[in-house]
Amino acid sequence: MSQCNIDHSHEDVQKKYESQKDFLPKELLELFHSFFTKTHTQETLNEVFHLLKKYDLSNKDEKLIRNEKFLIVLK
Question: Which top-rank group of organisms is this from (predicted)?
Answer without folding.
Answer: Bacteria
